[in-house]
Amino acid sequence: MRLLFLGDMVGKTGRTAVYDQLPKLRKKLQADFVIVNGENAAAGFGITRKILNETLEAGADVVTSGNHAFDQKETLGWADEEDAFLRPANFPAGTPGRGSNLCEARNGARVLVANIMGRLFMHPDLGDPFQSAEQQLAACPLGEGADAIVIDFHAEATSEKQCFGHFVDGRASFVVGTHTHIPTADHQVLPAGTAYISDAGMCGDYDSSIGMDKEEPLNRFLTKLPKARMEPATGPATVCGVLVVTDDSTGLATAIEPVRTGGRLSEIWPGI
Ligand SMILES: [Fe+2]
Ligand SMILES: [Fe+2]
Which residues, in sequence order, are CB contacts of 29 under 8 Å at separation 6+? Predict the structure, then answer.
């Protein structure tokens, strides 16, 4: 099975690049299942129902999120009704929406997608991400309840991300890090068969500060004073993602390679 993940869409340039590229990517890479992180899609902060639907129409099967899940207040109103939208599973009990979903891929396979958030340098009060994963995997084990399991681990610290990958190694098909918006070069199949990357990178303008127009973030580093609102950068976006191939008999990964197209970063096409 071929799983395609695209990193955080940032602002209009990020989402329009995904709308434009995803139908072609889906075809070219023969993806059976596509996940896109949408936590920064609406002007850099959160996601609207309209953007969720546009992303699904472009070819995503599931849209994940993270710490910005509810930046748009309207999301609280529809998160319970949209099964294709995930917010972190370890948010407090009673938070609208869901943290995981067992989906049917277009090839008929059952894919469990979970969105879990790290705590280090983020929100220490969140539920334990490792326990959250343990619960999800116990409820729906790979090869029994699901033919593939993908976890979007939304976290700041690469140490926490790596440890999380090792924790679920052999029990999930793919752990993809998100949130830092910068693609890492450590994609690999871990020893027990879980594909892993510390960060998929973003779908956004890389002439920026992690997707936001660089002027205001730089001003805040220099003066410690806010001068203006943070706005997404508007230059051409690089669509950054990762392609994973799994063995249909085990659900474990056999290969993982990055995908990058458009904008300022060098083009990369998977050879798998
Ligand atoms: Fe993000
Ligand atoms: Fe984030």
Answer: 2, 4, 243, 259, 270
Active-site positions read 68
Nearest to 9 by CA among 47, 59, 53, 56: 47
Structure confidence by residue, pLDDT tens digits, 53-74: 999 999 999 999 999 999 999 9
Q: Output the CA 66–ligand 2 centroid distance in Å.
A: 5
CA of 211 from ligand 1 middle (Å) equals 9
Tokens of 118: 């790290």
The pLDDT score that the predictor gives to residue 9 is 98
Q: Alpha-carbon distance 48 to 24, whole Å?
A: 24
3-state helix, strand and coil shares in percent for the chain, rounded to the nearest 5: 25, 30, 50
The whole model's pTM is what? 0.98
Element of type H or E holding 111? strand 110-117
Domain residue spans of the chain: 2-207+234-261
Q: How far is the CA of 115 from the centre of ligand 2 (A)?
A: 12
Specify the fold of 2-207+234-261: Purple Acid Phosphatase; chain A, domain 2 (3.60.21)
Render the burial of 169-184: b for 16+ CB within 10 Å, e for the rest.
bebbbbbbbbbbbebe
| Closest ligand by atom to 66 CA | 2
